[in-house]
Recover the amino acids of this structure.
């Protein structure tokens, strides 16, 4: 146990507290009547979780590649299933991102959700518990339970509070993302029968026979590729993103899509290194296709949410591209892009939600020409739009640069196509930005952003610029974990 | 003392026998509930009983007592759920309870029988009572009559086939005691006669469990019988069937590959046929019937892997199966007007008409589909681990794929109640005890999902 897990140095179980604090909020909300009280409780709960996650961040030791803040309790001893939690340089950032996005989701729903507010906030907080739980779990079964438990509140968010086609979109989302899970479960059981335990770290870096690795990798890859979503499995994403309420789209884009890439980094690479290496060319090919294809599809969209949804396909292509180059810079770029995409795309969906509340339309034409009417809004929107295509000085520039550098190191043609995709991103984002700012001349009675909306977007805007100009702190946090991962992998692939 | 749970159930039946002679319903519901609860408490108290009766034909041990406890829990829930005057003619109410108790008595005896003739007798006690209550439905249509005739014929045929198999077992062992058969069987187990004898004997219980190919009765009987009768038939007899299947499978120390092959084949067909047919159902009870056929297939995973803890997995699964089905059927019972059947479309907007019922249905549907953190997932997981450990990878993968197929129709129930508008369906108002039952079922389903270890240890202790 000690060889990979540093026990929690604090005098309270901080990871469990962060995971289950939203559940406490839900317990309080269940006994409340007024909508105002429900909203305030949800907001306070999510901000308290954010605060705790920052405490976690400040105590995090970036020097060690081991899992930190460990907690371990026996759960189902007959099958050696335990309640083991721990975080490393990969997950600490994703946890902080989750804790940062959730208050924004509560805030952006303040006025937008009028029907069944209580149930809505319960779903959002349930999502937070499940998402942080996924990132903290060091036991396969615990992980799987959180992983699947995310589906139910997300399904309800889309099915109950979604747009006109919510019925279709929610079913498609649920069935599509569930399709991969049974394979994941079978792979987990197979690993258990070999290792005799469901502990995740104990399954890593073992010399499994190659054909066994191939099957396990394929099972993992189906489950994770659907979540990412990688190119041929992406069709659930535009429907779900478009029909979900703003908070749902933000949670989907910012956190849920990261589950897939996190799965590749945490499971596929360390557990099946040789198979990952063997399949890398295919994964990279699919990533490059996603980047270019996503860019072209975005060019022809007239619906703002759909455009951003397809741009996610392209952006997540960069992440998988970075991961499967097996280079230090590729891993770091992929991690940075996971965080950056969470911030930027989340912020873009929030922005669409803000304008949708005023015009009740997601069509680009209905929302264009806002430059004079809503200057503050267009200012924020412009920042997030240019960040989305990686304008120098914004967060995505750093991450894409890392990934592109690693792509060229892997193969020149892959790098070239990825660069083409990055240019396409500039084309569709600038087209959108131009329409929103100058597209129409007529005056409409629209109010600019209010204080609540500014507070929702401001922290994300700060992060866009901060990571853009000064990414070092983030890289420092993840560096040793990723370097350790790479060293271990090199031992297996050469 | 050893026969406490059985005596309690027998007493219940006799009391209702006299009540039925008197006529008139009076406080029937109250007495039924009070006595069912007492029966449950008695079964709980008798959990640690151990001993052998009737020259070794009847064994009381932890295995049988666990099953009796489950049976009486199921019976108790069914009695508490039954409260509508619209389902059964008032004059027949005491008879209805009498047959229900007699059937449970027979099932309890099945759990303890370790001798072929007592197995057959207890099976018949439980079956004949059920044949009698299927037509007891207050309804204008003749659907329940068709159902009862079908049930009778299918039951008779499966008993005949089972007796045929038992005849072979007797022929090999020259004894009707299971302990003697265990001793005689290794000699024959690799010959066709051994395989045939075991398979045919199991068929009688496949009927109770509604496993392919003995599943044809289930959808029609579920549709034709009254809601409460269906709730009972869909849950309680299956518990005893699992007990007997485990007992028969334990006759051989390890399953011969041919027999395992047959069982795996039947399990795969049962899952797939049940789930595919479930996709197109309009009547919720028919839908749950096909779901039950699919779940019977999952349960066989435990029966074929007894050597790797499959027995405990199977008991765990039948326990969670009891609770998730009770929850599903309870929603139907409460929703149905005049005791009629509920269509999937009738669920529209349930989350607005009654949030608690919608939640109960959702928890039940997600559990049936096997989604964490419900007990349905934990149960399936234990079954998969046992079967995989035994080396039956193919059936594990088929089971996993079937989970995905089934999610569509389970999710459809949730979808109807959450994303459709209620239209002109009226709100559903619940009484206090109805809410309490809903909460209790939700609690049990989640409890078995999150804290399964205590129960699992208990069940493992029975082997």
């Amino acid at each position: 146990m000690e060889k990979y897990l540093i026990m929690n140095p604090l005098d309270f179980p901080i990871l469990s507290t962060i995971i289950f604090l939203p559940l406490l909020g839900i317990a309080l909300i269940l006994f409340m009547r007024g909508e105002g009280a429900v909203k305030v409780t949800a907001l306070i709960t999510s901000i308290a979780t954010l605060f705790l996650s920052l405490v976690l961040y400040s105590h995090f030791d970036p020097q060690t590649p081991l899992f930190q803040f460990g907690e371990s309790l026996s759960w189902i001893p007959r099958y050696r299933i335990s309640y083991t939690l721990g975080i490393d340089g990969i997950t600490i950032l994703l946890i902080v991102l989750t804790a940062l996005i959730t208050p924004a989701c509560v805030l952006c729903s303040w006025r937008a959700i009028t029907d069944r507010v209580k149930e809505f906030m319960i779903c959002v907080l349930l999502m937070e518990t499940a998402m942080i739980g996924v990132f903290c779990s060091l036991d396969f079964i615990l992980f799987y339970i959180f992983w699947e438990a995310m589906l139910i509140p997300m399904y309800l968010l889309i099915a109950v509070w979604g747009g006109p086609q919510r019925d279709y979109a929610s079913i498609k989302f649920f069935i599509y993302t569930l399709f991969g899970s049974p394979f994941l479960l079978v792979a987990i059981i197979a690993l258990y029968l070999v290792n005799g335990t469901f502990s995740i770290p104990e399954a890593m870096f073992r010399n499994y026979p190659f054909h066994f690795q191939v099957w396990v990798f394929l099972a993992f890859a189906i489950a994770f590729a659907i979540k990412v979503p990688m190119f041929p499995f992406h069709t659930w994403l535009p429907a779900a993103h478009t029909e979900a309420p703003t908070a749902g789209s933000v949670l989907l884009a910012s956190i849920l899509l990261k589950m897939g890439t996190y799965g590749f980094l945490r499971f596929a690479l360390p557990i099946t290194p040789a198979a990952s290496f063997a399949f890398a060319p295919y994964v990279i090919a699919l990533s490059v296709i996603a980047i270019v294809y996503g860019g072209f599809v975005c060019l022809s969209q007239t619906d703002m949410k759909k455009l951003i949804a397809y741009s996610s396909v392209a952006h997540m292509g960069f992440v998988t591209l970075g991961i499967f180059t097996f280079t230090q810079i590729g891993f770091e770029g992929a991690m940075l892009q996971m965080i950056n995409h969470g911030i930027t795309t989340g912020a873009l969906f929030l922005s669409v939600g803000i304008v949708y509340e005023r015009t009740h339309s997601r069509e680009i034409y209905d929302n264009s020409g806002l430059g004079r009417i809503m200057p503050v809004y267009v200012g924020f929107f412009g920042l997030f739009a240019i960040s989305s295509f990686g304008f120098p000085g914004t967060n995505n520039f750093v991450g894409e640069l890392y990934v592109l550098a690693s792509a060229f190191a892997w193969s020149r043609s892959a790098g070239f196509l990825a660069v083409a995709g990055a240019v396409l991103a500039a084309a569709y984002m600038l087209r959108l930005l131009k329409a929103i700012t100058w597209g129409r001349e007529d005056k409409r009675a629209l109010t600019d952003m209010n204080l609540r909306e500014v507070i929702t977007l401001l922290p994300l805007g700060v992060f866009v610029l901060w990571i853009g100009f000064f990414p070092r702190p983030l890289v420092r946090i993840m560096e040793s974990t990723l370097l350790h991962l790479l060293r271990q992998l090199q031992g297996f692939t050469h | 003392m050893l026969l406490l749970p059985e005596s309690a159930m027998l007493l219940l039946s006799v009391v209702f026998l006299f009540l039925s002679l008197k006529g008139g319903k009076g406080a029937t519901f109250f007495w039924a509930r009070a006595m069912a609860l007492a029966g449950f408490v008695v079964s709980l108290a008798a959990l640690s009983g151990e001993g052998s009766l009737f020259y070794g034909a009847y064994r009381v041990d932890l295995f049988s007592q666990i099953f009796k406890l489950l049976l009486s829990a199921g019976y108790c829930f069914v009695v508490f759920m039954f409260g509508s005057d619209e389902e059964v003619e008032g004059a027949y109410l005491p008879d209805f309870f009498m047959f229900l108790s007699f059937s449970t008595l027979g099932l309890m005896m099945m759990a303890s029988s370790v001798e072929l003739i007592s197995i057959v007798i207890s099976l018949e006690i439980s079956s004949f009572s059920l044949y009698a209550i299927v037509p007891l439905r207050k309804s204008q249509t003749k659907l329940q009559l068709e159902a009862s005739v079908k049930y009778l014929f299918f039951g008779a045929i499966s008993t005949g086939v089972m007796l045929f198999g038992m005849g072979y077992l007797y022929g090999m062992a020259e004894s009707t005691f299971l302990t003697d058969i265990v001793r005689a069987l290794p000699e024959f187990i690799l010959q066709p006669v051994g395989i045939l004898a075991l398979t045919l004997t199991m068929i009688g219980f496949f009927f109770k469990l509604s496993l392919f190919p003995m599943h044809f009765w289930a959808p029609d009987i579920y549709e034709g019988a009254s809601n409460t009768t269906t709730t009972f038939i869909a849950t309680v007899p299956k518990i005893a069937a699992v007990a007997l299947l485990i007992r028969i499978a334990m006759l051989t120390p390890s399953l011969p590959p041919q027999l395992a092959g047959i069982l795996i084949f039947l399990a795969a067909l049962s899952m797939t046929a049940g789930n595919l047919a479930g996709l197109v159902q309009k009547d919720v009870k028919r839908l749950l019937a096909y779901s039950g056929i699919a779940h019977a297939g999952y349960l066989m995973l435990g029966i074929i892997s007894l050597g790797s803890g499959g027995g405990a997995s199977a008991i765990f699964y039948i326990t969670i199966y009891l609770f998730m089905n009770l929850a599903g059927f309870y929603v139907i019972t409460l929703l149905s007007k005049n005791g009629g059947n509920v269509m999937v479309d009738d669920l529209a907007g349930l989350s607005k008409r009654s949030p608690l019922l919608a939640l109960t249905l959702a928890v039940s549907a997600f559990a049936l589909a096997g989604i964490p953190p419900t007990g349905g997932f934990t149960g399936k997981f234990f079954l998969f681990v046992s079967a995989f450990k035994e080396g039956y990878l193919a059936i594990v993968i088929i089971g996993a794929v079937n989970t995905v197929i089934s999610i569509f129709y389970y999710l459809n129930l949730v979808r109807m109640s959450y994303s459709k508008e209620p239209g002109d369906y009226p709100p559903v108002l619940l009484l206090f005890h109805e809410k309490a039952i809903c909460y209790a079922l939700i609690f049990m389903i989640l409890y078995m999902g999150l804290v399964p270890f205590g129960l699992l240890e208990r069940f493992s202790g029975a082997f």
In short: The first strand of chain A starts at residue 5 and ends at 7. Strands of chain A lie at 5-7, 67-76, 81-87.
